[in-house]
Design goal:
Blueprint (H helix, E strand, L loop, with lengths): L1 H24 L8 H23 L5 H15 L2 H13 L3 H25 L2
Amino acid sequence: MKQLVFVFLGGGFGSVLRYVIGKLLNNTENGIPYGTFVANILGSLLIGIVLGLAAKHDSLSQNQTLLLATGFCGGFTTFSTFAYENHMFLKSGDFTSFAIYTIASFVVGFLAVSFGMYLAK
C-alpha cells in the first residue's frame, strides 16, 4: 500500500507540472506543442538520472524510485498527448510538423535518457 502512495504522489506532482509547462509553452497560434515536447524530454532526462542512480550506485530506495521514476516521470511525460498531437498534424495535412515533431521527440528523448544515465555515473 505504501508503494501505491508514492506512485500516486509522484504522479500528481508530475501531472500538475506538465499542465503548467503546457499552458506556458504550447503555442495556440500555430499549434506547435512545445510544452509536451519539453515535458517529454525533461522527463526522459530525469528518468535516465533516477534509474541510472538506482542501478549504478544503489543510492535510491525502491520507494524513492517509485516516487520519482514511476510516479513523477509517469505523470509528467505523456505518450497519449504526443499521439493526439501527431494525429492532429496528420488530420490537418501538416506532414512537415508531424515528421519533425515525431523524429525530434524520439531522437532527443533517447539522447536525454542516455545523457541522464551518463550523468548518474
